[in-house]
Amino acid sequence: MQERISPARRISGALRLPGDKSISHRYAMLAAIAEGPTRIHNYSPGADCQSTLGAVSALGAVVEGRDGEIVIRGQGLEGLAAPAADVDAGNSGSTIRMLSGILAAQEFSTQIYGDESLSRRPMDRIMKPLGEMGAVIRARDGRFPPLEITGAKLRPIEYTLPVPSAQVKSCVLLAGLFAEGATVVNEPVRSRDHTEIALREFGADITVAPRKITLQGRPKLQGRSLAVPSDLSSAAFFIVAALLVPESDLVIQGVGLNPTRSTLLDFLISIGANIKILDVAEANGELVGDIRISSSAIRGGAIEGATTAALIDEIPVLAVLGAASDNGLTIRDAGELRVKETDRIATVVENFRRMGIAVEARPDGMVVPGRQRFRAAAFDSFGDHRIAMAFAVAALRGDGESVIENGDSASVSFPQFFSILRQVTA
Ligand code: S3P
Fold it and tell me: What global pTM score does this model have?
């Protein structure tokens, strides 16, 4: 589907965005293996999180409700059942990688597969630790979906993450729930900690020291009532839009401000963004607050090291901002971008080329010069939700109407993206 975007004069208003994708996946998976019902308010409407609901219900958890208000009736740690058919993870790396931790501990085998994009994404990063714990996993060419997971009585392990990945960390921790004894994950680079927080909320015994997480196996997880904050990674598109378009003033309410995610705001403020956190509260162990963004002169700079890992999902839209900044933006240490839903270095560079924006691609990043003129163009999402939304934001600065081919990919994380964008654009 094509989306058409005209240049904007102003981005303004007050917004509330759908629930966080990362947190929604985790709540659904833990609810499925908890005892009793879990009520989840503001569950992400994105296709990825619906894939997780489909998967847990195929495994015997009962899922009820709709429009972001759902109830999952958990089956307990021992209660999942063999699915009647192969499990479809759709486009969702989080679903296949994290759920594999649970599947690895079952008494049955499961086949789990995904769409064309997911079928090209590496799974050896979870196969290795799960293999060490005792599961047997077969993959296409030894590392790609579909996966055939033969569960086992798992052993606890101490595992040091070779790549910064919250999905791999979460996979090992979920598997560790089923192992007798303490599972330890060391993470040399900090990644989002929603799994650790959610495990504690469901009653698991987990301790978190800097870069080291220890989980005691075989807890009794208890279903409960939970509220998902709005997704900061979805908010990122509106934040950058408001920074880029002159005379903008936007408030986004109830956004998740977990410190492992809010590096985005710290980074933007450090390069000149006028962003105010209006208030902060805690809900289910997660920080939540309202933020206000006004158009700003952005200096530009560099994203590298641990900052790259913390901003990994936001890099496409930050690259767009970089092209409008005073000094440009250099992105380093971002090799992981090459194995996301698309090769995001290649898809960003291709869309920049279409709008006449200079960029130098590097194996692990890119250099985007600043003060560039944004020409209207026919962009392509290449089936990647964050590319669709990043270039919709770029189009707001175009010199005429732009087209986003395959714009409907946005629905992987944010089905209402284009309609909300229209509401706040003048
Ligand atoms: C996610 C972790 C990140 C991120 C993805 C969601 C998560 O992936 O890119 O969108 O919910 O844990 P990696 O674990 O591959 O870094």
Answer: 0.98
Distance CA 413, CA 386 (A): 8
Give the position, in ligand 1's atom list, of the atom nearest the Cα of 165: 14
Q: Is 422 exposed, middle or buried (0-12, 13-18, 19+ CB in 10 A)?
A: exposed
Q: Alpha-carbon distance 45 to 38, whole Å?
A: 17
Indicate if 364 belongs to the active site: no
Pick from 211, 215, 205: nearest CA to 186: 211
In which residue ranges of the chain is pLDDT below 70? none
**Rounded distance from Cα 340 to ligand 1 centre (Å):** 9
Query: Of 20, 88, 115, 313, which one is the catalytic site residue?
Result: 313
Q: In the chain, what's the furthest Cα-to-Cα distance? A: 61
Judged by phi (left if over 0) then psi (alpha if -120 to 50, else beta), residue 285 lies in left
Helix axis angle, 93-103 to 124-133, nearest 10°: 10
Whole-angstrom distance, CA of residue 365 vs CA of residue 347: 12
- How far apart CA 154 and CA 54 sit, in angstroms, is 25
Per-residue pLDDT of 375-389, as tens digits, reads 999 999 999 999 999
Q: How far is the CA of 166 from the centre of ligand 1 (A)?
A: 6
pLDDT the model gives residue 66:
81
Q: Are strands 182-186 and 158-160 parallel, antiparallel or unpaired?
A: parallel
For helices 315-324 and 385-395, the axis angle rounded to 10 degrees is: 20
Report which secondary-structure segment, H or E, holds 274: strand 274-283
Nearest-10 Cα torsion for 362, 368, 373, 375: 40
